[in-house]
Structure formats: C-alpha cells, structure tokens
Prior knowledge:
Blueprint: E1 2-7, H1 14-24, H2 28-36, E2 44-53, E3 56-65, H3 74-83, H4 88-109, H5 124-140, E4 144-147, E5 150-151, E6 156-159, E7 162-165, H6 169-174, E8 180-181, H7 192-201, E9 204-205, E10 212-220, E11 231-238
Parallel strand pairs: 1-4, 4-9, 5-8
Antiparallel strand pairs: 1-11, 2-3, 6-7, 10-11
Amino acid sequence: MKIAYLDCASGISGDMLLSALVDIGVPLTALQAGIDSLGLPKACQLASSEVKRGGFRATHIDVVHEPENAHRHLHHIVEMIERSTLTPRQKELAIRIFNKLGEAEAKVHGSTLRKVHFHEVGAVDSIADIVGCAIGLDLLQVDRIIASPIALGSGSVTIAHGKVSVPAPAVAELVRGMPLQGAVVEAELTTPTGAAILAATVDSFGPIPPCTIERIGYGSGDRDFKEQPNVLRLLVGEVGSQLPGDQVWVLETNLD
C-alpha cells in the first residue's frame, strides 16, 4: 500500500502543500495546465523557486496574477471546476475541498452553503492552490493519506471580517475532531485552505507508520520563523497490508 504522510509541525496551507507536491516531483506543467483550464478571468502563473526556511531548503510556489476584487460564491467556483479539463477524480476532490470550506464558512456566519460568500478563499490564488493540490494529490497515486497532529499557531490574524484570534473561526470548525499540537510561533500556521484540504483528504492522523520512504518533499510557507522551520514535509512511502492497530500476534508452544 502506498501512503502519503503530511508532517504538519508548522501547520499547513494550500500553497505549502502545493509547493511540497512540486518538490516531491509532481510536474509543474501538469498543475499549470489544469489551472489554465479553469477559465479564470485573469491569467495566473505558477512560479516555482527554491528558498531557505530555518536553514532548510524547500520549494515555494507563488501564484502570480493581476489584482482583482472578485468575491465568489461556492456555486461559481464549482461551475468553474466542472467546465475545466481536470479528470473526474481531480474535479471531485477539488469540489470536495471547497464544499468543506463552504460548510465551515456557512456555520460560522449563520448562512447556507448556497449563500455563503467566499472572501480570501474565493480569490485567484486560493482557487489555484486548491485546484493545484487536488491535481497533485491525484497524480501522487497513493492509497491512503495520513497526517501528524496539526499545529495551528497562536496570536491573531486579520481577515475580511476584522481581527480574530488564531485559529480563525473557519479553521476551528474544520479541525474539529483532529488531533492538535502546540506551537510556540505567534502566527497563523494553519489556514482555512489548509484545514479544508486536511478535512477532505486525510484518512487518519498519527505518527508515521512503519514504511519504506521513497520520496520526500518540502513546501515552504511565506514567512521565515526563528522558532522553527516554516515548512510542510510530505513523505511518500510503501507500507505492508497492515497499518498500526491491525497487528496480529501468534503464540506457539510445544506440548509433550
């Protein structure tokens, strides 16, 4: 069984996972082609660069596009994805992530899935991040996705509705039931986009299972923290048919 493991010691965001996917070997051209097919009103380009975060090398993907003021509803984004050239599996995964976001936003704002109004996550860069991650995760061709406990960060962050404590309300909704870990960094480490990807794709949480690691990718966040490397580590490996918790013990004896 092939697995992907997300090491979220510094949290997760859409661009961190997208960067890690490129770093581990997903072709940037395949991601760009899928995003180009969305028909976004202003062209956007994925720009890849190598950076250092806390002394460690990582890939960073920037979504370069012209400024826009559009704020889209969920159904606008779903229609965009359905008209694209993405494969059926990639479309389903991208829509599932956006639905998770929509459900969380609708709950915290007392709205409905149909009426919920995306702000930051309806922008070109967020759409490109989520769709790119859906394409990349599909191209990894893994059977199972596992993640470590999630670092959320601390302090406060300013969103479209003003200044709020970390985790932002939508993030708090999305990580319900997930194991969390403390973080000494005063910043938002896990974004709504990252939390939605976890909620839509991760099969289980915990330590790395016994496996043979085949590939490792490092995706960076925007900032460089002095307390810890601001990277998401993605590992792809092979495990046997039994994951932890499915062990079988055999007791043998000789009777005379």
